[in-house]
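User: Structure please.
Assistant: Input sequence and predicted structure:
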Amino acid sequence: MRVLVIGSGGREHALVLALARDLAVDEVHAAPGNPGMAAAARLHPVDPLDGGRVAELATSLPVDLVVIGPEAPLVAGVADAVRAAGVACFGPSAEAARLEGSKAFAKEVMAAAGVPTAMAHICAGIPAVEAALDAFGPPYVVKDDGLAAGKGVVVTDDRESALAHARTCLGGPAADAGGRTVVVEEFLDGPEVSVFGVTDGRTVVPLMPAQDFKRLGDGDTGPNTGGMGAYAPLSWVPDGLVAEVTDRVLRPTVSEMARRGTPFAGLLYAGLALSTRGMRVVEFNARFGDPETQVVLPLLESSLGTLLYAAATGRLDDLPALRWRREAAVTVVVASPGYPESARTGDPVTGLDRAAGCDGVHLVHAGTAVHDGELVTAGGRVLAVTAVGADVGEARARAYVGVGQVRLDGAQYRSDIAAGR
């Protein structure tokens, strides 16, 4: 089959690499892609938010399947435009993507479906935020209701910092007059786990769980980011966790979306906290997670293209059980100086050939560009250095050997990804 991947980040590069090594896939295209994808896919300079242009590209190539990577095109309805053009598309409709586009909507769906999640207040102004903060007490959890590229959440013991984030989310000084909302939640203790569910709107096929590291600094310090690293598999998760998440979270949510007349077909990502009161959903995403995708897909032995095409065409029931490599994967994100507040761009990045030559290592580009023939930074998260090994310890050691070969002035990366796992 011929596949077109929409997006330009690390998640999309990981998808391109997995599809390129898939024997069921004959040709991979990406739009707009990034410099790292050029070795495995043909790139097309198309705006990923322009549904008409994406559909036109898909039909003109032509391709059998479009895979939409980022959340913004999904919320903008690009999947709807592709399907309207008669091309199979992996990614939910704009209506279904509201599960990620609005945290308040996701809470409403979870309540209707009986999905365990944190208690929350949906707040339309600062007085409501203040009351919710007082009701829950510290640590305070304040979330932007809309899309925020993984950086819309603040968890803090400082009430003023929580209020400041709420004001920013609500629109600044006129925070009580803009019609926007924020979500204030109870704090959930315990480790977090990410579980992906591939679904055609009826059947759900769960993937291997992974754990990502959201904070910028070692020891989970510093501000929240889009993710600074991840690893899989997770030897410490309770037996039966995937089955429990599928039965109590993924299937009920998919069923509730179908009941509402907005079936969810694509990738339903459940971010979970294994709290002292049991498993709870922290958030839903409507697409593959980043950087968890970078460690889950290298361990998948089954055909990714066949899996995604079956989900896009309503045929997941026909697939055999997924097969997984009996190895481990670790990815470490290398970020620009200033990330996540104000990432510096345009800095040269070198050493990539040396890094990719390390045993078990491959590189995933997230925020790079070519300027005057030189690879430079073009975003906050620049690269994900990913390694596969016999176990987490070996994969981790290999990943950090690869990181050590990358040269970027002022680079930021955590030194404790998957430490002690």
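The chain has a mean pLDDT of 95.
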